[in-house]
């Protein structure tokens, strides 16, 4: 019987399965950041344990790092708790070791889900874990990657294994060509709009179809990044030439004979033609329009040509209540066209959309519009996902386009994706954001988040309100 890509990677890594289905899974790559690792290392220390396979660990500081003031070094980290988390990671890696460590201020530092792939730390067929829910991102490389909790971080550090139960297989097929201006972010928001934030619960999602094949690796990472917002712990895309080309020559990628052997294996990393999925969902890419979230969950999303929903039209009482609460929090009136929503801040960044292609997409929109950030927008910021992305963008002159238009060009990190560092929304502020979560208070207490693509965020910054980027071509 044919196997899915998920089945194949799972089978390769199972060490043992209990009668109730609980499996011991071997872990190839462990990505570590400063938020979810301190207690795990402390646990090892107290038990007198070492890290089982130091060469599997790749670490960086990202959530708490400031995006300004790097010239002041560690003194530039204003918040004492942030500073402590960052220095604790430094000390833990110094004591326990890692294959690679990109600390605060280093040139390769960045968001863990950006630096993993760009350094070749994420390879096809691997099991990848990180104490972070957006680890699903790495599934874009045909790796089985998912987030784990702090106690599991300790377990993996100590044993190189994870206890897990196999999920079901969900195939999401997106067929057809995207319209101009419609991007990977719009695909994944449209998927979540369709299946809901619980649609993928209990599944590993494989994203397939011609629209997914046509995406760059960056685009595939954007899609897999938000698999977790669709309820699935892991998302996958089959390996193809793009995957292999992306990885060639990366610092931690294999080379020489090992590269050839690896590529031969990687080419088997796709679902067999006769593989069966527990559930199949199909989307027509030609019908996807630029998406904007209007509420406080990623599933509260509509095309830019829509209006804010009217709770009175919802028959289901609990859904009606959810819409009412969301609209109240978001300060929105039913029936308002989405393109009449004005924003106070714009954030282009996060592990969803801070790679070089996202920077290019946003810069191209700013350049095309040829105007400055609108007067009503208090702050428009672009935060590259890593030091390497920043350097590449600067080589291409993208920072000059942003700065000339009035955007701030910052140092890499999670930044305003979540309020764990100095970048945040003030109560009541409304933000066009390229991140992945729009929960209440996510970007700061009382802050209002609208999730969009980089092109949509750039256009909102210049116009001061949302606009359909398809009309700007
Ligand atoms: C801080 C971390 C544990 C968290 C996560 O797991 O995703 C964060 O990255 C987020 O995006 O909410
Ligand atoms: S950028 Fe945002 S979603 Fe991604 S790891 Fe950082 S906080 Fe989490």
UniProtKB/TrEMBL annotation:
Q: How is the cofactor bound?
A: Binds 1 [4Fe-4S] cluster per subunit.
Its keywords, alphabetically, are: 4Fe-4S, Amino-acid biosynthesis, Branched-chain amino acid biosynthesis, Iron, Iron-sulfur, Leucine biosynthesis, Lyase, Metal-binding
**What are the required cofactors?**
[4Fe-4S] cluster
Signal sequence bounds: none
Which stretches make up the Aconitase/3-isopropylmalate dehydratase large subunit alpha/beta/alpha domain? Answer: 7-464
Q: In which pathway does it act?
A: Amino-acid biosynthesis; L-leucine biosynthesis; L-leucine from 3-methyl-2-oxobutanoate: step 2/4
Look up the domain of life of the source: Bacteria
| Pfam families for this protein | Aconitase (PF00330)
Under catalytic activity, the entry for this protein gives: (2R,3S)-3-isopropylmalate = (2S)-2-isopropylmalate
Residue positions annotated to bind [4Fe-4S] cluster are 351, 414, 417
Q: Which Gene3D superfamilies match?
A: Aconitase, domain 3
HAMAP family referenced in this protein's UniProt entry, alphabetically: LeuC_type1
Family the entry assigns: Belongs to the aconitase/IPM isomerase family. LeuC type 1 subfamily.
Q: Which PANTHER family match?
A: 3-ISOPROPYLMALATE DEHYDRATASE, HOMOACONITASE, MITOCHONDRIAL-RELATED
Please describe the quaternary structure of this protein.
Heterodimer of LeuC and LeuD.
Read off the NCBIfam families from this record: leuC, PRK05478.1, PRK12466.1
- Which named protein is this? 3-isopropylmalate dehydratase large subunit
**Lineage of origin:** Bacteria, Pseudomonadati, Pseudomonadota, Betaproteobacteria, Burkholderiales
């Amino acid at each position: 019987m044919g196997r899915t890509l998920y089945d194949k990677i799972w089978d390769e890594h199972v060490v043992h399965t209990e009668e109730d289905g609980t499996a011991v899974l071997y872990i190839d790559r462990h990505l570590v950041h400063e938020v979810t690792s301190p207690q795990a290392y402390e646990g090892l220390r107290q038990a007198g344990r070492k890290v089982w396979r130091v060469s599997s660990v790749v670490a960086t500081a990202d959530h708490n790092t400031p995006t300004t003031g790097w010239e002041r070094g560690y003194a530039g980290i204003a918040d004492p708790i942030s500073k402590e988390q960052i220095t604790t990671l430094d000390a833990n890696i110094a004591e326990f070791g890692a294959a690679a460590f990109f600390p605060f201020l280093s040139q390769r530092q960045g968001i863990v889900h950006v630096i993993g792939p760009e350094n070749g730390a994420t390879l096809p067929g691997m099991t990848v874990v990180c104490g972070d829910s957006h680890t699903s991102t790495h599934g874009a490389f045909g790796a089985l990657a998912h987030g784990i909790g702090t106690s599991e971080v300790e377990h993996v550090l100590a044993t190189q294994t994870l206890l897990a139960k196999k999920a079901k297989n969900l195939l999401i097929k997106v067929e057809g060509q995207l319209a101009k201006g419609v991007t990977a972010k719009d695909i994944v928001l449209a998927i979540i709009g369709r299946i809901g934030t619980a649609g993928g619960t209990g599944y590993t999602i494989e994203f397939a179809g011609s629209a997914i094949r046509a995406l760059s690796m960056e685009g595939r990472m954007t899609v897999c990044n938000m698999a977790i917002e669709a309820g699935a712990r892991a998302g996958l895309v089959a390996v193809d030439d793009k995957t292999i080309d992306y990885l060639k020559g990366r610092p931690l990628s294999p080379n020489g004979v090992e590269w050839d052997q690896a590529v031969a294996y990687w080419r088997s990393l796709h679902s067999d033609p006769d593989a069966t999925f527990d559930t199949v969902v199909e989307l027509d890419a030609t019908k996807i329009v630029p998406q904007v979230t209007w509420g406080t969950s990623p599933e509260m999303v509509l095309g830019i040509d829509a209006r804010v929903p009217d709770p009175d039209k919802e028959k289901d009482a609990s859904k009606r209540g959810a819409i009412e609460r969301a609209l109240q929090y978001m300060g929105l009136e039913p029936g308002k066209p989405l393109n009449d929503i004005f924003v106070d801040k714009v954030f282009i960044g996060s592990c969803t959309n801070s790679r070089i292609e996202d920077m290019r997409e946003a810069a191209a929109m700013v350049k095309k519009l040829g105007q400055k950030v609108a007067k009503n927008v208090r702050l428009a910021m672009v935060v590259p996902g890593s030091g390497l992305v920043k350097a590449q963008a600067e080589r291409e002159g993208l920072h000059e386009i942003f700065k000339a238009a009035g955007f701030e060009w910052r140092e890499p990190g999670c930044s305003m994706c979540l309020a764990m560092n100095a970048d945040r929304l003030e109560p009541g502020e409304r933000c066009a954001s390229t991140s992945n979560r729009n929960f209440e208070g996510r970007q700061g207490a009382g802050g209002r988040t609208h999730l969009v693509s980089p092109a949509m965020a750039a256009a909102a910054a210049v116009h001061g309100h949302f606009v359909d980027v398809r009309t700007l071509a």
